[in-house]
Design goal:
Blueprint (H helix, E strand, L loop, with lengths): L12 E7 L14 E7 L9 H14 L3 H9 L4 H5 L14 E3 L3 E3 L2 E3 L2 E2 L4 H7 L14
Antiparallel strand pairs: 1-2, 2-3, 3-6, 4-5
Helix pairs in contact: 1-2
Protein name: Catalase protein
């Protein structure tokens, strides 16, 4: 298992699990009345397609604890700038990050995406701060 450190400049995420959700569901999940909503701190994670997504997730999982090797593997790719852009996200305090749902959800005739935004004054002030990094990962450009 690979766990992302929250003091490095990359997208960060969390999941909300809703219980006691009723309604029509896919057969595979129909016995569990729950709904998972995954949020990420950037609106879209751009991997450029399913095949590329699987390759990048495999690389990040395999070399996530060896950043020099991960950077070397990303440098060898044709889409290296796109993939290294993932590591160039400004590192903000977790309380001030906007979080965006990564999937669209259908409610009746409506299709929506969620955005969780800071509303308290303290949270808005934290947005201006950059969290001290523990180390620099691959840099874009």
């Amino acid at each position: 298992m690979f766990t992302e450190q929250d003091r490095i400049p990359q997208p960060h995420d969390f999941i909300i699990k809703l219980f006691n959700v009723h309604g029509k569901m896919f057969d595979a999940g129909a016995v569990y009345p729950t709904q998972d909503i995954e949020f990420n701190s950037i609106p879209i994670l751009e991997f450029a397609g399913t095949k590329t997504n699987c390759e990048i997730v495999d690389l990040r999982t395999k070399y996530g604890n060896d950043q020099s090797e991960l950077c070397k593997r990303l440098e060898a790719r044709k889409n290296t700038d796109l993939q290294k852009g993932y590591d160039a996200v400004r590192n903000m305090h977790i309380k001030s990050r906007r979080q965006y749902s990564q999937a669209a959800y259908r409610f009746s005739e409506f299709v929506i995406k969620y955005c969780s935004a800071s509303s308290a004054e303290t949270q808005r002030k934290l947005y201006e701060e950059t969290v001290k990094l523990i180390r620099i990962y691959c840099t874009a450009g």
